[in-house]
Design a protein that fits this description.
alpha+beta, 4 helices, 29% helix
Length: 157
């Protein structure tokens, strides 16, 4: 598969539709107070870089990098279309976000995902890329619904 990943506008209608599917998924699996997905205002914030993955122009997945300062960043809004699942799109997006972070001299990369079974594939993907469970960071709290993960990034290659 030849997925092309690059910066895109999260307010494009087809991207908004995929982000709505992401929110619907997280809201269906998580209690209301534990849905931490960014809304459109959050995704267009100056601290966030938003990316989309496409194949032959077809939108397959999205992901974002939110810079936290002091050499730290967070992965946000990773989601793939149903038709793209199991095809390596999530891994390609994760690798792109990690490369982007390294290129910006980010040394620590974190994320928050759900603890429920619905999020098990995401946790497996992140662990396979070197992420491990960590203490809550930024505004996250210790609770039974969230898993915070992080990895230390090496220098850009």
């Amino acid at each position: 598969m030849a997925v092309t990943i690059g910066p895109e506008d999260p307010t494009l209608p087809e991207i908004v539709d995929l982000l709505e599917a992401h929110l619907e998924f997280t809201r269906g699996a998580s209690p209301p107070d534990h849905v931490h997905a960014l809304d459109l205002d959050g995704l267009v914030h100056e601290s966030v870089s938003f990316f989309a993955g496409r194949e032959d122009g077809e939108l397959l997945g999205v992901g974002a990098l939110r810079e936290l300062g002091h050499g730290r960043a967070e992965i946000k809004s990773m989601h793939t279309t149903k038709s793209a699942r199991g095809r390596g799109v999530g891994r390609a997006m994760l690798e792109h976000l990690m490369r982007t972070a390294r290129g910006r001299n980010i040394s620590w990369l974190g994320l928050e995902t759900g603890s429920m079974d619905e999020f098990a594939p995401a946790r497996r993907l992140y662990r396979s890329a070197g992420f491990s469970d960590c203490e809550p960071f930024d505004r996250y709290t210790t609770n039974p619904f969230s898993v915070c993960m992080s990895t230390e990034l090496s220098e850009p290659e």
